[in-house]
Write a structure and sequence with these properties.
The protein contains six helices and four strands; from the N terminus they run ααααααββββ. By secondary structure, it is of the alpha+beta class.
Amino acid sequence: MTANAGSPRPFGRHLISLVAVLVGAYVAGTAIWPSEANVLAKLPGPDLSPAEVVRIQVSALGQGSDSEAGIAVAFRFASPNNRAWTGPISHFSSMIRSANYSPLLDNVSVQYGRTLTREDRSYTALIVTDRRGVSSAFVWVLSRQASGRCEDCWMTDTVVPIGDMQSLKFA
């Protein structure tokens, strides 16, 4: 018996609360997570938060290693400085298919860390798990664009591959 035995709560009431929380999480998740068809049509815009930009790019890349469309979406959200280093799209595609970034393609799950935003810079850490079950960590670095056709849009400056979680050693 527990200390709360004097004030029993019906199981059905807990079940209804649990279902409400799960439905709320599902609805919130679908609002945050664009559908696969929608993600390929997304364009940078000042209405998108840094977290939304990261989710769009990761979702697009998760379309698969055979999807140049997903890679094109990720490139679309790359900042002008990023494009100067990683473009044209053919070079960007080769880079994404390299060992450092390939876990982002065909991923089966993603765990998003908290997004930290300070003024016009934003950082998001995440872990993707690929089809082999290997989990790899990345840090997305974004900036709000100050000028140009994407003024006030959050765009990705760099994605830092941290490595597969099995190889990381902690003291």
